[in-house]
Amino acid sequence: MKPEQRTSWALAAPVLALLLWCVAYPNITIIAGSFAHGLGYWREFAHSPSDREALRTTLEVAFGSVVAATAVGLPLAFVLSRVEFRGRRLLQAFAMLPAALPPLVGVIAFLFLYGESGVVTRAVQRGLHLAEPPWRLTGVWAIIFVHAYTMYVYVFLFVSAGLERLDGTLDEAAAGLGASTQFRLRKVTLPLVTPALAGSMLLVFMSALGSFSAPYIFGGGLRVLSTQVVASKLNGSMGMAYVETTVMAIAAVGALLLLRWFERRRTYALTGKGSNTRIALRGPMAHLAPLLATALVFLLILPHAMIVLVAFARDGTWTTQVLPPQYTLENFTRMARDPQLWTPVRNSLWMTVLATIANILVCFVAAYLLVRRRFAGRGLLQLLVVLPWAIPATAIAIGLASTFDRSAPAQLRLLLVGTFWILPLAYFIRGIPLVTSAVEGSLRQMDPSLEDAARGLGASWWLAMRRVVIPAARPGLAAGATLAAITAVGEFVASIVLYTHANRPISMEILAQLRNLSFGTAAAYSVLLIVLVLLISVAARLLGGRAERVETIPTA
Amino acid sequence: MTGAARLSLDKLTRRFSEKLAVDALSLEIASGELVALMGASGSGKTTTLRMVAGYEPPDSGRVWLEGKDITTRAPRDRGFGMVFQHYALFPHMTVGQNVAFGLEARGVSKSERSARAAAALANVGLEGASPRAIQSLSGGEQQRVALARALVIEPPVLLLDEPLSNLDPNLRRSTRNELRATLRRLHLTALFVTHDQEDAFAVADRVALMQNGRLLQVGAPEELHDNPVSRAVAEFIGRATFVPGEYDGQKVVVHIAGAATALAARAPATVGADVLAVLRPDALAFVKDGGGWAGVVTDRRFAGAQLVYRVRVDERTEIELQSTDRNVREGDRMSVRVVREPVPVVAA
User: Among the three residues B226, B248, B276, which one is the final residue of a domain in this structure?
Assistant: First the structure.
């Protein structure tokens, strides 16, 4: 074996072993479990009316979310990148706001705003003197409504990036050849952003398919696969939980494969330099646009504002009023005084730090191997790092719960369920695709001859790594670790399956306070979560910003 | 406005924040004429072209096409074909769809579209390329597809932005000749931008030389070479040694190596008595039989059929000349003489 290959394998073997153990093994356990009685569980699934309903509803939610998120995200992306009006920059900055809400927090904000006793609902009811609330936030439509807010960001981001990358001279060339604005949009611009649009739609589909928070809070009696999995597990019918999990995972992986196919087709959109100009609005639209932009900004910021407002509401006082009647700082001061209330915060922080550090170490090696090395097992590694992205968090959690529920060293099983370690492990797994793909992105931008040049100048492999490769990977590490940490600190879906009282994270405490009708305390925790997310982003931006300068020197 | 002009630029001006990108540029292009806008990067030539095409609004000045003021017309209504520097071929369409795009935009029927696109492709030597993917084309083929796409809409004036700059040197030479042949054969009127004087000289009937947003001189290639109106033009076009001298209206007297030499001179009308004589390398030669300016060869460079030598004739003057004599070495003492007169002179 050549020394080059020896290092590759020395690096790859432990990473592959770890990922096989914590990513592949639990999934195999689930699939094997679903066939524990031959096709018995599968037959039961096919004949169970509630499971059929869950499957149908899940697909309705998934497709509905794609339509709704596209209906919001696509026009917004086009308008913000092609039209100039007062308020455009403000709207552009605020358009990303939904991404800054941890999933459970977003759902709660919608509950406070548009729920049966929500502020907007009650204001409309009072305003129109209705005896009943004008709407109920339950069922498929409620879930799709929440998804439209939280998931349009994917469509908006992908399409905006696609438009940004679009070679501006293509549009000029089409105009020069006599094409009208509509003709250019239809024949040139739309076809060119179609791969980006399709990719973002699939991403929405995958996210909506595995979405748990919105169906869990708003579902009412509604069944979807993700909530059905958790219900089956609580009822002790693990066989059914395995089948439901497998179905959900297969649908998500199918969408992922489709997404990869679209990404391969996207290559041509990357050519050329962007010199896109925005059209200035004239006439009445020029006056109307800033108003519309302001209204949209207001709608976007409303959930955040609502959470902050309720965080200062005195628990138990907000009953039938439109707005909470009494305000206090107590919800926050109590958290600082009462160690019981502080525990979830400490837990979430610790588990996030542990998971993120593990992500940084493992994912850097994985990304380095994927970008810079050719070795047998590379395809497997590629699959293992992307799987946790496609597989819904509920499925990951069920896999961990049924694999590491006993100590059996011969089967490579450790008893983790019921211990502190099961949640950091789950967070680590969810962070793998985020950190790996970000680092891969950075390393791909690095000129491959840089590492060879360092080695040619006599640097040891480790010195070349430390002085050349790691600095090049730093922006990706910072960005990926931010995403992983933000996901972990507000994690809810895997946590609800795996937490114990001792290691309960912030999200579980929010849910407990909500059930207790302590809205103020629940909102105070949510505010804390939002602040943590902001702090993590700012810290990473400072780190990543420094790294970016390092990176631009060789290419300048 | 002269009646013969197809395209006329009248005091076009464009300012980007502080900088005057194009400064009151006027230029007339006759029907069937090929004109090159030449200049270094940043000279304003591309901005000028973009104002003609309508992509850039001029701050002041007008663009006339066949006697009509088109200054405020949108690009799509001007009907100019444009060939872009990076070709701007639509990556999601085939070669045929790219070429037919302008016809599709005009609502031409499908059968007529494909017939005319095929004809345009044949015009640029790409028969049968219609079904091919853009990604499968070589750089030279892409350039020709871009040309066909612009030609198919039968533009009153064809605009080309650095059409040859993305090709490697060998391909560039052959494409240059094809381009001129095609434009000539189809009797096209064209305005093209280039920074390369070989491209400009090979393709254009007239060259408009720009610097800092201003037009320095417009004329046939030989005229720019032989009768530069200023030192800037003489420096940009070809190579030259500038020697100070006095001009009396017919002759220029230069002082080199301690001797005064009188040379027949050709000067722009505005020039005064203090001038610079422009000594082109090809207007000079070594002389064996004494006479001329004696000096030491300081540099020798092989350039194919010719060699380029530099000869130091006094402490301030180093003369560059071309010669077919391969036997001269660095350090040799040689004499140099002007063998082709009149020499151009420009204001000092």
Answer: B226
Contact assessment for residue B23 and residue B212, using Cβ atoms and an 8 Å cutoff: yes
User: pLDDT by residue (tens digit) across A173-232?
Assistant: 999 898 988 899 899 988 888 888 888 898 899 999 989 999 998 877 788 999 999 999
Range of the domain at A168: 60-223+249-311
Phi-psi region of A178 (alpha: psi -120 to 50; beta: other; left: phi over 0): left
Asked if the structure places residue A449 within a domain, the reply is yes
- Nearest chain B residue (CA) to A276: B55
| CB contact (8 A) between residue A173 and residue B135 | no
Q: Does residue B245 share a domain with residue B151?
A: no
pLDDT above 70 (res A23):
yes
A178 interfaces chain B, CB cutoff of 8 Å: yes
Task: Centre a 10 Å sphere on the Cβ of residue A339 and count the other Cβ atoms it contains.
Answer: 9
The DSSP secondary-structure symbol of A100 reads G
A176 touches chain B (CB under 8 A): yes
Q: Does B198 reside within a domain?
A: yes
Looking at the fold, whether A276 and A362 belong to one and the same domain comes out as no
- Same domain as B133, residue B36: yes
Between A and B, how many CB-CB pairs are < 8 A? 72
Q: Where are the beta strands (DSSP E) in A227-344?
A: 279-280
Do A436 and A505 belong together in one domain?
A: yes
What's residue A554's pLDDT?
31
Same domain, A305 and A341: no
ipTM above 0.90, yes or no: no
Read off the tokens for A125.
Answer: 């009811």
- Across the interface, whether the CB atoms of B91 and A173 are under 8 A apart is answered no
A473 and A336 within one domain: yes
- Counting the structural domains of chain A, the total is 2
Residues B199 and B250 in one domain: no
Using a CB–CB cutoff of 8 Å, tell me whether A3 touches chain B: no
List the single residue in B76, B84, B159 with the smallest CB-CB distance to A178. B76
A526 and A453 within one domain? yes
Q: Given a cut of 70, is residue A272 above it in pLDDT? A: no
Lowest mean pLDDT among A54-68, A270-284, B135-149: A270-284
pLDDT (0 to 100) of residue B35? 96
Q: Is A183 on the interface with B (CB under 8 A)?
A: yes
Work out the average pLDDT over A234-260: 90
Q: Is B244 found in the same domain as B114?
A: no
Across the range A421-448, mean pLDDT stands at: 91
Average pLDDT over residues B197-214: 94
CATH of the domain at A198: 1.10.3720.10
With CB atoms and an 8 Å threshold, state whether A177 touches B53.
Answer: no
Which residue segment(s) compose the domain that B303 sits in? 239-347
Domains held by chain B: number: 2
Residues A21 and A81 grouped into a single domain: no
Q: Average pLDDT for residues B280-291, to the nearest whole number?
A: 86
At a CB cut-off of 8 Å and minimum separation 6, what does B19 contact? none
Mean pLDDT of chain B: 91
Pick the residue with more confidence: A380 or B272?
A: A380
